[in-house]
Amino acid sequence: MTTIFYLEPELVLAHGRKVLFLNPNDLQIFKEIELPTDLTTCGLKPVAASEATEEQPASKSEVSILNVSYSPDRQLIALTTTGQKALLLYKSRPEHAKLLSIRPLARASSALRFAPDSSSLLVTDKTGDCYQFDCSADVEAPPKLLLGHLSIVYDILWTPDQQHIISCDRDDKIRVTNYPASYDIHSYCLGHKEFVSGLALLGEQQLQHLVSVSGDKTLRIWNYATGEELLLKELPAPAVRLQLRELVPGQRYEAAVLFYDHSAAIGLYELQLNAADGASPSWSVTREQLIEAAAGSWHIGNFALCGQRIYVLGSLNDNLTLRAYSSQDGAEDATLPEGWLQMVDEQFDGEGQCVPEDLSVWFKKRYDNVSDYMERKKRRIEDTNKAK
Prior knowledge:
Strand content: over 45%
Number of strands: 27
Low-confidence stretches: none
Strand order of the largest sheet: 1-2-3-4
Radius of gyration: 23 Å
């Protein structure tokens, strides 16, 4: 599993047991976090048998980072691991990150998200459960189970007012849950036909608009309060990652989508809010561009938008590989000094092979029992006719 994202002014990369915080302009390292091979040496305690649903690995199991997130106030860094399943919380300031707590997880995480006020953190797991971890009053406190899906959750959001939690899963659903009364579901945004892989909020808070992408080859915009679909944009391939950046506050956004198994790796879509006097706000796609990024010649895992540059992270011959492309024309970025991308790759040389994630398992398997039944029925009729 590889992670890359941009949060001004840092480009964050994670693979194996290491996280790098880089200057996106020259790729110089601001700071780094490197986990020990055994997390029990920094305070990890095993999950109680009554809480664990998976067999807990022994301490010698290989530790690998799954997810990384920065708090909105930029004071905290959270990361989750597999091998020894844990949530680690760091204080990001001063220059070197300081470990505040390490708490066990019952199952491997699938997504994590800080609350808008940075006071707590949501961690979802691969069975669909979502837990809330305290990040202010008691950073050692056990988690609270908030909500659950019937399948793996791929993304989760808080609304800015912290009144709702929005989550999406492998079963095509986008669910809006009230908070703190998380037993109460506020609404569903229904329409996708395959897994929903990414979510992002659009416009001013009072609009209550949301963008989603899916394995059904669509990008959709919703009013999440009512569940109404406001825009449907057909995509050239299934979408497995979504990133959004604001171009004009509250009015214009750029949605970047990573495609599954397509000649172009990334699609850029400019979303414009149309708010005529007296009319309901609507959205349109005013510009779109495909970035090939040499798709097919290497396994692309994730990407980050940084100004006019797109950093793409993936695997080539089982080695971690970082490349940069222009968001204007899709050409490989030639402004970085020669060899600097390779220097970043070399920082992860001791972190083991970079094995691409098998995204084919995200798609639902469909079984056609009717065809098999009809074929057997046809043979029975033929055998009966021959007997006569």
